[in-house]
Design brief:
about 60 residues, 3 helices, mainly alpha, about 10% strand, flat
Length: about 60
């Protein structure tokens, strides 16, 4: 789990933080863990993560 934070931080350091949507989730994670890792979103399980990603993509497409 500590690698999740490293991945999100590296995306930012490499200038990809605005281009890639980072989600953290699953049974061992919590919403606070996702926030601390710098993730854009948290999904408690796969089904919720899919719904969250669909909402994000819809919003992003409407902005462009």
């Amino acid at each position: 789990m500590p690698n999740r934070k490293i991945v999100v931080e590296t995306l930012g350091e490499e200038g990809m933080g605005n281009d890639i949507y980072a989600m953290v989730g699953g049974a061992p994670a919590t919403e606070n863990f996702a926030k601390d890792a710098g993730a854009d979103a948290y999904g408690r399980d796969a089904a919720v993560s899919v719904d969250t990603a669909k909402i994000y993509l819809t919003q992003r497409r409407q902005k462009t």
